[in-house]
Structure of Methylthioribulose-1-phosphate dehydratase:
Amino acid sequence: MDSSSDLALTEAGAVLAAEAARFASFGWMRGTSGNLSMVTSRDPLRLAVTASGLDKGELTSSDAVLVDDSGAAVNGGRPSAEAALHARIARLTGAGAVVHVHSIAAVAVARRRLDGIVFRDLEMLKGVGRAAHHEDVVLPVIENSQDMAVLGDRLEAARNPLMPAVVVAGHGLYAWGADPRQARHHTEVVEWLLELELAEHPPGPPRHRPSGQGQP
Ligand SMILES: [Zn+2]
């Protein structure tokens, strides 16, 4: 690796560490969960991704790993297991940064909205570039998988080009933007929407239970 790409990775690592500390402070990256990335080069595609297994509230500028368009480490290091999905989102959407958090609201709401979550008539929808009134805005939900290729296929098939986020059922949220700041704003707005949904409609039993179970 030459010194300029070293510097780029360190600078990206500092940005990702600051973003991760913010999300960790919100309780969205508990344990060592979640991961963040930002594009450092478009052609060939290269991303700085948070390293695997670290506390996201304690990252430093040296805790990012450079990966290629398949999510594989370019110069050593151990990227997050989900790096391949970050790279695929960057390829697919043209995003410059991707945020993945394991938030309670995303998991709780997706349990009973497996076909997607519909929002409407909310001022906050402007925060993801949608109209505040008279428009149904769909946040897609996809089934989880440990295979990043399968998960990527599902994301690509379900993606709403007008919504910069997807919820993975039983897992968490992916959101993206042109740069880390916009990806952060999209993440926070979508989380707000999910928390509102949760507050207005507390979850009942998961949908897969036989009907009638637990009835008096
Ligand atoms: Zn995850």
Summary: The chain has one domain: 3-200. Residues 49 and 65 are 5 Å apart (CA to CA). The chain has a mean pLDDT of 92.
